[in-house]
Structures are given as C-alpha cells and as structure tokens.
Write a structure and sequence with these properties.
800 residues; alpha/beta; 4 domains; six-stranded parallel sheet; 27 helices; 42% helix
Length: 800
C-alpha cells in the first residue's frame, strides 16, 4: 500500500497510523474552533472566525504540500497549519487572545485577529531563512480575495527559478519545483481579484493550486446570489486546458470524502509541480457548523433541512464513518481520540491564557505598589488609593487598564514631589509596551533604507546631454546585468521597452521572463511583484501611469504595506513599484493623488524624483535594501536633456533626504517632481522684482526629510510656501504638517505658512485645461509676491 505522501510501499499498520493521526489533528482543530467561540462569547477574546467544517480537505492539501511550497490562503485554514506542523493548540489560542509576544503567537505577535496565519521567512535580524527546508505560509489578510494577487507571484517565482539562469537559488528554490497553494471561500470568488488572478495564472502558466472551499454561503448569503449557476468550477470550464490550448486543470471533489480528497490533491500537486500548469480544485459539499463567525448565528439564515444536511455531511462525521467501515479504527477508539482532543485543547487553552495574562498581572502589581507608595505621601491619598484598589481588583487586567490608571493619578500629583517618579514610570512603560503594537512598519534590519548612503553620479569631462530616458535605460541595463534576480514587468514594458522607451532593447537582451509584457491588470501586476519578492527575487512592477495605481491601491495598502508590520518583521517583500505621473493633460491621465497614496500605503516608501538621474539613483539604492517602495517618474521628463553618468548602476539617491537646488533669503519654496521646474522658473522671475527664493526638492515623501533640513531653511527665510499638484488638502497638507508641526518651523515664521495646490477637480484636457487646473508659473509667482506684499506692502505693492 502507498501513503499519500510517498511512493514507497508501506504496511497497512503504517497507513493506519497515518490516517488515524490525520483524524486526531482534525479533531483537535474542531475542538479549538468550538472552544475558541466560547472564549469570544465569554469576553476573553474579541472576535473569532474559525475553520470548522473544512478540516478534512485541509488534511488532504497538507499531505501534498512539500518543503519549499507556499500557501496564500484565507482565514479558515487552521487545520492545514496544524497538519504541516506550523501551529499548535497554545499558539492557536495565543492568536485568539492577541498575545503580543511572537514566541507565543508566531503568526502575527497579536497584531491580527485569530485565523490569520503565517510562517517565518526571516530570522529575528530580518535575514532570510532557508525557505526550501520548511513549509511556508505567506501572511494572511482579511480583505476577501486579497490573497489572490500575491498567490500569482508566489507561483511565478517557481517559473522564474526554473527558467532563468544565473540566479542564486540558495534558500529560495530547488529548480522551481515549488507549488503555490491558494485557498478561498466560494463566495469570495465573486471578487474581481479572484477572476483577475485566475486569468493571469492561466496566461502565465504557473504552478498554482487554487482550492475553493464551497459551503454554499457567503456569511448569510446563499450561492445563488453569489455565483452564476451557483458553481464556480462550472462557469470556469472554459479555462480547462486541452490538447491545443493552455489553461487550467479543473478538479472537483466532495469535501467530506477523505480518500477522494487525498487522491485529488496528489494529482493536483503532480500536475502543478511537474508541468507548471495551474490547477483549480473545487471542494464541494462542505459545511460551516458554527456559522461565519462569532458575530452571529447561522441558525438565522439556514433552514432546518439545511442544518440537518450539515449535521449528516459534516466532514469529520463522514471521516469517522469511513474509518470504522474500512476497519481502520473502532468506534470506541475514535471516541477515545475525541475525548482526548477535548482534554488537550482545554489544557492548551489554559496554558495559552496563563502565558497571555502573566506579564500584565506582573505589571499590574508593579503599578499598584507604586501608586500605594505615592498615595502615602499625597494630599490626594484617598483618591489615589481608590484607583490603586480598583486596578488591583481587576481579575484579568489589560495594559490599557494599567496605563489609564497611571495617567489619571499623574494629573492628581502634578504639583507634588512624586510626580517625577510616576511620570518616569509612565514614560518607561510606554517605551517598553508601545513597540509591541507599533514596531516593524518598516525594516529594522541592517538593510533598512535609512542606512544607505548617497553615491553621487560621476561624469566624464565630455559627458553629452542625452534624452533623459536613456539615463534610465542604460541604468536598467546595468541593474539587470548586476542583479540576475532582478526582473521588470508591466503593460508595454517588454517588446516596445515601455511607453517612454526607458526599457528600450532590454527584453531582447535579457529575455521575455526578465523584461515582460503583461495584460491590463494592475492588481495582479502588484501581486506578481509581492509574491516573487517574498521568495527572494527582486521584482520591479511597472504601473503605466500614476492614476492607474488606483486599481492596485487596495493590494498595496492591505497587503504589501502591512507585511512587515503584521508579521512583526518575520516576512518581507522588497518590491519596487515603478510608475510615472504629473503634468499630463486630461481628467484620466494627469491626476496626482499623492495625498491618497501616501496615507493609504504607510509601510511603503514613496519617492518622487525630479529627473531620471535621480530616479535611476533611487532604483540603485532600493536594490541594496530590503523594503518596498513606489518610484514616481516625471512623465514629461523623458525627452528633456540630462548628462549621462559614468557610474551607471552604482550611483545612489539617498532616501528621506531633501536637496536644496537654489539658495535664497526671503522665502522657502518646497515642492517635488515635475512641479519643481515651474518653481524654478517662477523663482528666476521673482529675482527680477527683488525676491530671493530658496527652493527645496523633497525627493522623498515617505520618509520625509529625516535630517530636518527644511526647518533650517525656514529659520533663515522666515517664510514658507508648499507647491503641489495634488488637490487642496492633499499632499501639500501632509508636507505642511511635517514642516510646521513635526519640525517646529512655526517658531521661525514671520508670515503664515501657505500651500499652493491644484484645483479640487480633475485636470481638464488640453494646454489651457492644464493651465487653469494646476499651479502655473504665474500662480507661484503671484502667491509668493502676495506673501511678500503682506510682509512689506511698501516694497511690494499689491498686484491686484
């Protein structure tokens, strides 16, 4: 007899042992779901969403899942995580409670609610582990179908490793033999991200196995309201491959049929792993015994007939029957397993709760002792003792309880000697606890962008002025030669070398896998980049124009931007996103939604170079770091002339550092990107009326002016104007806050700080549309002049 995980012939006793162990895992998982719901309803946990009803197919999937493989799933895959040895009972409950110690909750250190799973791709220092020697799960996110774009990239990485020579595969791949496994609920297949990914995977022909757990409902809404024909595999039949066309292998299987599930997943694994063909596994007739989540009961929307069917076709009940009928186990033996599972889960829950509460109880006792000591010396003794007693009486305290009490007492003793002691305790406590909730928005490794140093471009004495696009093109050439693991892909990026010829000739030189055209599908372009970056490649995902980024902003915001944060630094995706924008004409191609972007994607650096040499320097810098970034090239700058550097691929633009491009004494003008050219022109014209303007190029919106150089300029000029192409209140408001509030520039101002932004509407078409929609040279001149007029109306009489 052969087992599901090996081709070797084994005895019936070994087979029996393996199958019974599967049942034990499934039973433990079910008990975790049942007890987990009770923990939420009793208030120990905030919310629960569990994997009950999906246990048996996840066992089968786990059997086919090999070292090096990756999962990109949804929040019901707890049985799978237990089956691959990536989660135990205590860790399950630690996640449910939100334990902030990653040693107890390795999934997210309490940052995500339970049901969101991950393995560690990085060690505690942010260095790659050997991903080929472990089973991997990319970190889950809650947005429905949000896991799909990333899945595409995880699968594509195997194709790159198998077919592109010269890449060091150590730690990342065994000749591209890894499969990316996706999971999703049937209702979430209604999302556009699902269909976009399914189409893209079929085009790319990547080793992806996509499982749809189908229990006929999406929360309370039946499949008849979700899916045409109420059957996702039925409507995807056109994707089925045949002798003449590439496509998918589509498999269907009952979710309660253990042997059929094992056979199906072995077949899916073999097809995807060997042939690099995507596979869709539609797992039907599943149940959800406790309903969608702890926020409601499924008895409200399932009738008696459906509930009776679910009881009969519960996958665990069916597996139990199969074990008995095939003489693998007796009813009594399985009953004993069931009972032991209840005991093990209950004990594991108790241990997890004790581990979760112990540190806080110690902090509680520490504060109570301090408050009682303060009370003994205070005029407010009675009130402070009451607060101390109230804190001490909290049976299961949380850290909010502790800090609220301490801060309230601090107000009572503001004029007493003990104030300094308590204030220091609060500051130390906050400094200790806050990182448990706030660390790792960005990399904390040695490869953080903040540790990179500028390397200036060098030039020959005879350096010629060339179209700026050639600086980008030749720098990309140097990059692709220097870093075999680097690749770029996007709409029109390959054959024609991108719409502005910044990649001219690169596909011919480096091949279609490294410089690739893709379909019009921005979300999965981002997903390709995220997944490949998570597997050690250095992708550059190109979004053709800045406003097309809106199609991908959800993936950037919910997945890429949060990855290091939501795994407490144990996963990373150093993806570079390339796009271009500003100053084009028309409603749809000239938006500059920077305020929306910078506020949606905290966790991704946002870089806004004023020319192509600066942009090229950013790419060179980023490839030596381990953080994701968005680079916005100036759309109207590709044909402007720049000198060709001699150190292509080596010069580096610093990130988070501003540059003063003109010195002045009367006012500081702050801007970035294409608008700087207008600012420079206006500054030259202002000189003719005796106004000396200092111009600062921000270069990097996130991070922003880490050396606080702008305030130094404002201290000299005492006036500030921020010029931006975004809508009023957009990026200019962010910039103003950074300078006036965070850099304390208000102390140096003799005039009100002001902003000059575009009109609130989208830019209208044509040259006049641009002039009347966005800041012009005349707008900048007159805005500065009006500021100077207010300061010295005699010297600068009013223009109007």
């Amino acid at each position: 007899m052969k087992t599901a995980t090996t081709s070797e012939v084994v005895s019936f006793e070994d087979f029996k042992k393996e199958v019974i162990n599967d049942y034990k895992i499934a039973r433990i998982s079910r008990e975790c779901s049942l007890l987990g719901r009770k923990e939420v309803l009793t208030g120990k946990a905030k919310f629960g969403i569990f994997g009950d009803g999906k246990e048996v197919p996840q066992l089968a999937m786990a059997k086919a899942f090999q070292n090096g493989d990756f999962r990109s799933g949804y929040y019901r895959d707890q049985t799978f995580m237990m089956a691959i040895g990536a989660m135990n009972i205590e860790q399950f409950f630690a996640g449910l409670y939100g334990h902030t110690d990653i040693n107890f909750d390795p999934m997210s250190a309490g940052r995500q609610m339970g049901g969101h799973f991950a393995t560690h791709s990085l060690d505690e220092n942010g260095n790659w582990k050997n991903l080929t020697q472990q089973k991997n799960s990319s970190s889950d996110i809650s947005p429905t179908a949000g896991q799909m774009p990333r899945l595409l990239g995880l699968a594509q990485a195997s194709k790159i490793y198998r077919n592109v020579s010269g890449i060091n595969q150590t730690n990342f791949s065994e000749n591209g033999n890894e499969v990316a496994w996706g999971t999703i609920g049937n209702a979430s297949t209604s999302e556009g991200l699902f269909f976009e990914t399914i189409n893209a995977a079929g085009v790319l022909q990547v080793p992806m196995v996509m499982s749809v757990w189908d229990d006929e409902y999406g929360i309370s809404v039946h499949a008849r309201h979700q899916t045409t024909k109420e059957n996702i595999s039925e409507i995807l039949k056109g994707f089925q491959r045949d002798e003449e066309n590439n496509g998918y292998e589509i498999l269907r299987v009952k979710g309660w049929d253990y042997p059929a599930l094992v056979e199906t997943y072995q077949k899916a694994s073999q097809i995807a792993r060997i042939e690099h063909v995507p596979v869709l596994v539609h797992v039907q007739e599943l149940t959800q015994p406790q309903g969608h989540s702890t926020s409601g009961s499924h008895e409200r929307y399932k009738n008696a007939e459906r509930l009776a069917w679910e009881a009969e076709f519960d996958c665990l009940a069916k597996m139990k029957t199969w074990l008995i009928e095939n003489n693998i186990a007796t009813s009594e033996e399985l009953e004993e397993i069931d009972n032991q599972a209840k005991k093990d889960v209950l004990e594991g829950k108790k241990v997890a709760w004790s581990n979760f509460t112990a540190p806080t109880k110690a902090e509680q006792q520490e504060l109570v002792g301090l408050l009682n000591n303060i009370a003994s010396q205070s005029e407010n003794k009675v009130f402070i003792e009451k607060i101390a007693n109230d804190v001490a009486s909290i049976k299961e305290p949380i850290r909010k309880d502790i800090l609220v009490a301490a801060r309230k007492v601090l107000r009572m003793i503001i004029k007493e000697n003990s104030r300094a002691t308590l204030a220091t305790w609060i500051e130390n406590y906050t400094e200790k606890i806050q990182p448990k909730f706030s660390s790792h928005l960005f990399s904390q490794s040695d490869k953080t962008v903040l540790k990179t140093k500028e390397v200036a471009p060098t030039y020959d004495a005879t350096a010629e002025d060339v179209d700026a696009r050639l600086v980008l093109r030749d720098n990309f050439d140097a990059i692709f030669s220097k870093y075999p693991e680097t690749l770029i892909f996007g709409e029109d990026s390959g054959n024609i070398g991108d719409v502005n010829q910044g990649l001219e000739g690169m596909q011919e030189k480096y091949g279609e896998l490294r410089v690739a055209d893709v379909g019009i599908r921005e979300a999965t372009i981002l997903g390709q980049g995220i997944g490949m970056a998570m597997r050690g490649l250095r992708p550059i995902a190109e979004i053709q124009y800045l406003d097309y980024l809106l199609y991908a902003i959800q993936i950037m915001s919910d997945d890429l931007a949060t990855l290091q944060y939501r795994t407490a630094g144990r996963q990373k995706a150093p993806l570079i996103i390339r796009t271009r924008g500003h100053r084009l004409e028309g409603v749809w191609h000239s938006g500059s939604p920077m305020g929306m972007i910078i506020n949606a994607i905290r966790g991704i650096h946002v870089l806004v170079p004023r020319n192509m040499t600066k942009a090229a320097g950013f790419y060179n810098t980023l490839l030596e770091t381990d953080e994701p970034a968005l680079v916005v090239e100036c759309l109207n700058g590709y044909r402007l002339k720049e000198k060709m550097p001699t150190n292509l691929g080596e010069f580096k633009t610093p990130i988070g550092v501003v540059e003063t491009i003109k010195t002045g004494t009367d006012i500081t003008l702050v801007s970035y990107g294409s608008t700087l050219r207008l600012v420079e022109q206006a500054a030259n014209e202002l000189e003719s009326v005796g106004i000396s303007a200092e111009i600062i190029d921000i270069q990097s919106l996130l991070p922003f002016d880490i050396n606080h150089d702008i305030v130094k300029s404002v201290a000299k000029t005492n006036r500030l104007l921020v010029i931006d192409e975004d809508v009023p209140g957009g990026a200019s408001a962010y910039i103003l806050q950074e300078i006036v509030e965070n850099q304390n520039a208000y102390k140096h101002l003799d005039s009100a700080p002001q902003t000059l932004a575009s009109k609130a509407h989208r830019p209208a078409y044509g040259t006049d549309g641009d002039y009347f929609s966005k800041p012009s040279t005349e707008d900048i001149f007159e805005k500065v002049y009006a500021i100077m007029n207010e300061a010295n109306p005699t010297k600068y009489p009013s223009l109007y």
